[in-house]
Specification:
By secondary structure, the chain is mainly α. The chain is about 80% helix and about 0% strand. The protein is built from five helices and no strands. Helix 4 crosses helix 5.
């Protein structure tokens, strides 16, 4: 899509005989920036697509014994709406939930409780380290 618009603009500018070298350079810089953004977007979305497709597959595996019929509504209402919720939720919500669940497990098993916040922080660092190591990119600071 961006390539079509760049071509239109490029064709228009090539018809202009009075462009300065600065204007040509500015155009080329904008084009290069657009391509960098597109490459970055494609790199990031491949990881999201992998996670999203895994989630849908995992839900089918997890509930295969209780699923009678797979319909459009099932996909949309059960899987995709949950996926949208996941993508829009703050990771802090999940880290807090993980910590609460792990603390409940420790209480149930009579284990010594860890300092509040330590599980959440450890999980956050662990998840980020796994992402950085496996994507070979530095994550954005928060």
């Amino acid at each position: 899509m961006i390539e079509e618009r760049i071509k239109i603009l490029s064709d228009y500018l090539s018809k202009q005989n009075n462009l300065t070298w600065k204007e040509r350079k500015a155009f080329n810089d904008v084009v290069e920036h657009c391509y960098q953004l597109e490459r970055n977007f494609n790199d990031k979305t491949v990881y999201l697509e992998r996670l999203a497709s895994w989630y849908i597959d995992h839900m089918f595996e997890l509930y295969q014994d209780s699923i009678d019929e797979v319909s459009y509504e099932f996909i949309r209402d059960i899987l995709l709406k949950k996926l949208i919720f996941i993508l829009k939720s703050s990771p802090e919500y999940n880290y807090l939930s993980i910590e609460n669940n792990m603390m409940a497990l420790d209480i149930r098993n009579g284990n010594k409780l860890k300092a509040y916040g330590s599980i959440r922080e450890s999980m956050r660092l662990f998840v980020r380290d796994v992402i950085v190591y496996n994507t070979n990119n530095e994550y954005e600071t928060t």
